[in-house]
Design a protein that fits this description.
The protein is α/β, with parallel strands linked by helices. Helices cover 13% and strands 28% of the residues. The protein has a 4-stranded mixed beta sheet, covered by helices on one side. Strands 3-8-7-5 form a 4-stranded mixed beta sheet, with no helix packed on it.
Length: 138
């Protein structure tokens, strides 16, 4: 089953308006990963190098998409909602002023150029186990 059809069938699709760092104007089923109240769905996703992953916050809770700096390939670009250059800054900005937050219906997208494993987290829900992985094939 295709991941977008799966997400649509489990009822996590919603229409939202994008903000800086998110993808605006997409259709409700045009995202790859839903941010639910307590997790990323799916929590593992495989894409080809050069592929773009779109996350959408489908819950009423505020979330982030924040790469673990030590959990991405050495040559890969760092990624985080809010556009931060590194994990330390993303975490500092979250704790200072909720930087990088994605509200209900907002989206974030990242294009993965380097093959490998990419581990990421929702900072405010990290202690609750809200983390996931994107695998990038050549």
């Amino acid at each position: 089953m295709h991941r977008r059809r799966f997400l649509g069938r489990v009822g996590v699709a919603s229409v939202g308006v994008g903000t800086v760092g998110s993808v605006a104007g997409c259709l409700a089923d045009d995202y790859d990963v839903a941010m639910t109240a307590d997790g990323f769905v799916p929590d593992e996703l495989t894409v080809s190098a050069g592929g773009t992953v779109v996350w959408e916050n489908t819950s009423t809770r505020v979330h982030t998409v924040t790469a673990y700096e030590g959990g991405i390939p050495d040559q890969a670009d760092y990624f985080a909602s809010g556009g931060y250059e590194d994990e330390e800054t993303a975490r500092e900005e979250w704790h200072r002023d909720f930087g990088g937050k994605l509200e209900n219906g907002e989206r974030y997208a990242h294009t993965f150029e380097v093959p490998g494993r990419y581990d990421y987290v929702c900072i405010p829900h990290e202690s609750g186990g809200m983390y996931a992985t994107v695998f990038v094939d050549e």
